């Protein structure tokens, strides 16, 4: 994959992709590049207005692109179920679990979960489970790609306090949610392999990419100085969203992607550059932790992966 770029994405004609959080940042670039290569892309967006604007930008940059918008709020399991129900009649080859929130002040989802754990992990766990039958029908080449972060190394999942009731620390909560993304991928990959199906579960992270994710929390709290600090970091130190999206696109379309792979920019490049297989915390490879998080996620969301039940 040395020097791999978006121009290396193989033809996606005839394939359908769902990209969550596709109206901006990494999700927008992911959707744009898949559509540019011929895929039909469904933009799952919390704001239909921003989703429609993103779809128009993609069509302007890639004439003939087949893009659609569907409302999806990962902080509300009723919205997740409605989105999945609306996709029941469609083919699905790629699910890109991209949407996320970072280091927010303490908030809860519509279902009462800590917001970062609820959106970054539980929402995507439920969405994947509800869309799983369509992904399994797609056959060879179908993939689930979940976007994590190199910051997952700052915190492992605590099964005794998944919603951080004891003491909320925003960056630890973010790190735990990103570790949950990798544990979910690990356990899903194990279950897919055990079932003998060809759907691949992989993960990716963008390194340090310039998106609005970093400044969302300061903006929410009205901390203009912090917001400005994040903007300066994005401008002078981060790589572009186009570069940051490459590991995600490789995980989705690369030729040698294996179960439970994790891609990101090279560490020696300060988390910038073309995608490589990335290092990850050992706890994200724990079978015991993966099974425990899976069971808790089924209980909390009410979504069971019946097609993979042993």
TrEMBL record:
Q: Does the keyword Transmembrane helix apply?
A: no
Q: Which residues cross the membrane?
A: none
Q: Which GO MF terms does the UniProt record name?
A: oxidoreductase activity
The lineage's top-level taxon is: Bacteria
Keywords tagged on the record: Oxidoreductase
Signal peptide from the UniProt entry = none
Fetch the InterPro entries from UniProt: NAD(P)-bd_dom_sf, SDR_fam
The cross-references to Gene3D superfamilies, in alphabetical order and at most eight, read: NAD(P)-binding Rossmann-like Domain (3.40.50.720)
Q: Which family does it belong to?
A: Belongs to the short-chain dehydrogenases/reductases (SDR) family.
Q: List the protein's name.
A: Oxidoreductase
What species is this protein from?
Streptomyces violaceusniger
